[in-house]
Write a structure and sequence with these properties.
The chain is an alpha/beta fold and 231 residues long. The protein has a single domain, classed as Rossmann fold (3-Layer(aba) Sandwich), CATH 3.40.50. The protein is built from nine helices and six strands. Helix 8 links the parallel strand 5 and strand 6. Helix 1 packs parallel to helix 2 and helix 7 packs parallel to helix 8. The two termini are 13 Å apart.
Length: 231
């Protein structure tokens, strides 16, 4: 079975999709057979728009699992938490379908990068948060954050929540945010490393540089420090 990583963030809009795509791009360049999965996609009708972005970042690669729905096992139209989006359609989020889809992808690939929806504590059901689901399956967490004002608070709370649930944290990815003050941004990286160490996690912080979002501008980011203990 391939290794599964859970890529989540301190909030929505922090850059999980870009980071997941860039991680897959790095692994592909290293010759690793990697596939990405969007655990739950909301605000979408049809193929997952986040998966589309992953594929574009990786040069347009497609997988057989895209056609069978394994890489986007749950899609809902309303742009909200998965629990609310599913409820508005008279449905519930099928957690077993998600775990089975990821397991099937892991059986066929060396690495599976599972992108969450929103932040760590987004509800999947009335009783289950995204972090609870990922922790129950033993997926190591890659937490995406940034240096924008307020991020340190959200980062610390997210890491403490992971610690409380016994999750392994593979590392933090500090994403570029154009709204971040340069002084705060630089300090945030140091704080993130200190908090990781204090909580007993590897003090690994990977910084993603500015990019315009155009295909030719995607940076080649080295994520090997996060992944080296397994590959």
């Amino acid at each position: 079975m391939g290794k599964v990583y859970f890529i989540s963030g301190i909030d929505t809009g922090v850059g999980k999709t870009i980071v997941t795509g860039l991680m897959a791009r790095h692994l592909l360049a290293c010759g690793v057979d990697v596939v990405t999965v969007k655990m739950v996609q909301t605000g979408c009708d049809g193929f997952s728009e986040d998966l589309d972005e992953h594929r574009q970042i990786c040069g347009g690669v497609r997988y057989p699992e895209d056609a069978t729905g394994l890489t986007a096992p749950q899609i809902f139209k309303f742009p909200s938490s998965p629990e609310l989006a599913a409820r508005l359609e008279g449905r519930t989020v099928d957690l077993e379908r998600i775990s089975d889809a990821v397991a099937e992808c892991a059986a066929a690939h060396d690495v599976v990068l599972v992108e969450g929806a929103g932040g760590l504590a987004v509800p999947l059901s009335e009783d289950v948060l995204s972090i609870d689901f990922a922790a129950s399956l033993g997926w190591p967490l890659v937490l995406v954050t940034s240096g924008r004002l307020g991020s340190i608070n959200h980062t610390i709370l997210s890491l403490e929540a992971a610690k409380a649930r016994g999750m392994r944290v593979a590392g933090v990815v500090h994403n570029f945010d154009p709204s971040a003050d340069p002084v705060i941004d630089a300090d945030a990286v140091n704080v993130e490393r200190r908090v990781l160490a204090r909580l007993g996690f590897p003090p690994i912080v990977i910084c993603v540089p500015r990019c315009s979002g155009a295909p030719a501008s995607w940076p080649d980011v080295d994520f090997s420090e996060i992944l080296k203990s397994n590959h």
